[in-house]
Specification:
Length: 150
């Protein structure tokens, strides 16, 4: 079992358009060189303020994809749902306020490096550039979407 620590907060901002409800999950792995992972999912709630199944499923999928320990994922989702239910009624005017719940996660999972950190991979590719071959000239790189050789 890996150690996962999290903190749940919220940000509200007045809006003149339809209010946005978002859960932003920020995953940091202090014991690795991975960059911070930021994931946002739409927050949909029941009339009591708890997260609906669709939001729970999206959170579970994204956290699982990024190799957060399953029991921690379930606790994070449960606490986020409770936080939403407690916080939503305290909003001054829910119809005119953007509401973003921020879940900051520090994951100390030593096995979480099985997936390539795309940002690190792109940085390494940029450091190891070579001149394009005549066949590659004017092609677009499928990783960074820039013209090869620029």
């Amino acid at each position: 079992m890996s150690q996962v620590i999290w903190d749940i907060r919220h940000i509200t901002e007045p809006t003149l358009t339809s209010p946005k409800r978002v859960i932003t999950m920020k995953i940091k792995r202090p014991s690795t060189q991975q960059t911070k992972i930021v994931i946002s999912v739409a927050m949909k709630t029941t009339s009591s303020g708890h997260l609906i199944h669709e939001t729970v499923r999206d959170m579970e999928y994204m956290l699982g994809y990024h190799e957060i320990y399953f029991d921690s994922v379930m606790e994070i989702i449960e606490q986020t749902s409770d936080f939403a239910a407690r916080t939503t009624p305290m909003l001054d005017d829910p119809t005119n306020i953007d509401f973003d719940i921020i879940v900051k996660i520090s994951d100390y999972n030593p096995d979480a490096l099985r997936r390539i950190d795309l940002d690190v991979y792109i940085i390494e590719l940029r450091e190891n550039r070579r001149e394009p071959t005549p066949r590659e000239k004017d092609d677009i790189c499928p990783i960074c979407c820039e013209e090869i050789g620029t």
